Amino acid sequence: MVKEMFKIKIADTVVEIHNIYSFVETLCKDYIYNGDDSDIIVKSTQDMIEEERLVSTEEQSNDPYLENICVYRQIALELIKRDTFVMHAATVGIGNKAYAFTAKSGTGKSTHIALWKRLLGDKVYAINGDKPIIKIIDGKAYAYGSPWCGKEFWNSNVKAELNGICFLERGEENSIEKLDISEAASKIMKQILIPKDAEGVIKTFDLVDQMLRATNLWKLKCNISMEAAQLSYKTMHGGIYED
After folding, report:
1. What fold, for 84-236?
2. Which residue has the higher pLDDT, 105 or 174?
């Protein structure tokens, strides 16, 4: 077992990762950074991997995969200190604007993103299929890609201003409506990794509040149809697509 080290740059932050297995470095290949500086340093140990095995609900339980989860969690918690946090959402970009679709697992986030890709083709790109990084800069919220992106591996090493968050619900008919901040806040906190320490909790709540105030908030009840994608795109982005 050989200890290794590599660096990545995500959300304008250089992370130095001390790892045991090569899986996590392979996963991060599109984010590799070769400079000498580091903003955050994370390290994994076999003891940490064993602790992760005891609490993991993931189908995979091999050591390299569990190490990857350990690394991701350490980075996510450290990023909070830098006005940055991880959100559970499928996020796409159109030009320099980002749109995040969030809901509990199995509701259809990836399916809805796939419909946007069918509808819009090259006009839309995946920022992250599962865990985008959100950073608050001068009162604005920006979505960044990251290597931790779900089973579809939809991600891009990009940055785009967050122009809308859409909370998905299943429905027989398609409808979309604006949400106020209080209703959105009660929904979004279920999709945020929250630290255990009081300072981290307060910081996370403040960052989420800034994000919600900086972007448009929507609730979409939808079925799995192209009409649902047309409705959400035209409402959220106000764009025109070709039939």
Report:
1. Phosphoenolpyruvate Carboxykinase; domain 3 (3.90.228)
2. 174
